[in-house]
Design goal:
mainly alpha, Glycosyltransferase, 3 domains, 3-stranded antiparallel beta sheet, about 50% helix, binds glycine
């Protein structure tokens, strides 16, 4: 196993009692939030640790319904199913009317909300919405370069690029292939994954956030950051998306290249972690006062648990143990324990921190973030039992 894993031994794995307490806290928070967030979406990040209500227009709107579905699975209570199915109607309306859907984040939106609804309770509107979203994602595939264009008008030279996060949008395409019987979704998902493998991982095992391709020839051009500290740094969430993304790719296309790349990415990540296993927002920073990104740790824990389900024996156990340590740290030192402090689950996430060297807007710094909450809940769920993924 990775030598770097030894560094993680400073944090105790979460215990069964702690998992039960953490699950109770999260389910209670979901229940408390239902009146405010059944007919409204949560903002991508909290403001002063409280999520405002927003319309269902952001790339992050799927995570809150995903958390409601996890609460439904944890309790079996109809109130959660009822609320989550109200969100499905909002997602069906969004994709039918193409409301803020001209981007690649269809998987982040439709896997935890609508694929989950179909898998868990057979919601046909969820199925239809998710298939429409998969079609929308397919429409963003660029033949020249073999990738899914992340943002902006299709073919625009200043946006002829994909981003590392997109690996988590690919499961929607695999689901759509299986559900529709049409291979095209899977073919494009595999092509995008192979393009990512070819270009996005640097020789030092860190990742480029975004990667430009040549619109004329389809050749790789260069990496650039949007949300990391600067172009040659490693954005902590990007590295987490890559780790979880390799596990997801390996599930849908078992291939040693994904496992080897997962190991390399994880090794880099672990070497850059502070002692409590929760990274600073960019892996350039290993100590000091920069904000953390707790969501990166939550995503990585889910990636570890996903890969643990796909590999054998001692290796799987090591990955599970590491995830249990990371989630232990989140529960003990980052989780919301007092609802007067926050309406989220996990504090100290970072959405976009502006620097002189990046292009993001700068928001959601040292706040709860919708995906951080969701992946923390997913990791807890995965630690309690064998879980059928929404992804
Ligand atoms: N996928 C965008 C982000 O992680 O902020």
């Amino acid at each position: 196993m990775l030598e770097s894993v030894n560094r993680s031994q400073t944090v105790a794995p979460i215990t069964a009692t702690e998992i039960a307490d953490a699950m109770d806290a999260v389910v209670a928070q979901v229940r408390r939030n239902l009146p405010e967030f059944t007919y409204a979406a949560q903002n991508h990040s909290s403001v002063g640790n409280f999520y405002p209500q927003v319309p269902n227009t952001q790339w992050t709107s799927g995570f809150w319904p995903g958390s409601i579905w996890l609460a439904y699975e944890a309790t079996g209570e109809r109130i959660f199913r009822y609320a989550a199915q109200i969100h499905v109607q909002s997602f069906l309306n969004r994709i039918r009317n193409r409301i803020e859907t001209d981007h690649h984040d269809m998987g982040f939106l439709y896997s935890p909300s609508c694929v989950a609804a179909f898998k868990l309770v057979g919601d046909e509107d969820g199925r239809q919405a998710a298939l429409l979203a998969a079609d929308q994602l397919l429409d963003r595939f660029q033949q020249k370069g073999q990738f899914i264009q992340a943002w902006g008008p299709m073919g625009a030279p200043d946006n002829y690029r994909y981003i590392i996060d997109c690996l988590l949008n690919l499961p929607l395409l695999h689901w759509a292939s299986a559900e529709s019987g049409r291979d095209i979704y899977r073919e494009k998902a595999l092509a995008h994954a192979h393009t990512t493998l070819a270009n996005s991982i640097r020789p030092d095992n860190s990742t480029h956030h975004t990667f430009y391709m040549d619109p004329e020839t389809g050749a790789p051009v260069r990496g650039r950051t949007a949300q990391g500290y600067r172009d040659d740094s490693a954005w902590a969430r990007g590295q987490a998306w890559a780790i979880a993304g390799m596990a997801a790719c390996h599930r849908y296309e078992p291939d040693q290249r994904y496992v080897d790349t997962f190991d390399r990415l994880l090794d880099f990540y672990l070497r850059r972690l502070p002692d409590d296993l929760v990274p600073y927002w960019d892996l350039t920073f290993t100590d000091g006062d920069e904000p953390r990104d707790s969501s990166s740790a939550a995503i990585t824990a889910c990636g570890l648990l996903e890969m643990a389900d796909l590999v054998e024996g001692a290796r799987a156990e090591e990955l599970r143990a590491l995830a249990a340590r990371m989630v232990g740290s989140l529960w003990r030192d980052y989780a919301v324990r007092d609802t007067r402090v926050s309406n989220g689950f996990v504090l100290h996430g970072t959405y976009s921190k502006k620097t002189p060297y990046n292009t993001c807007t700068g928001e959601g710094v040292d706040e709860c973030v919708a995906w951080g909450d969701y992946y923390y809940f997913e990791a807890l769920t995965r630690l309690t039992r064998k879980w059928t993924s929404y992804w």
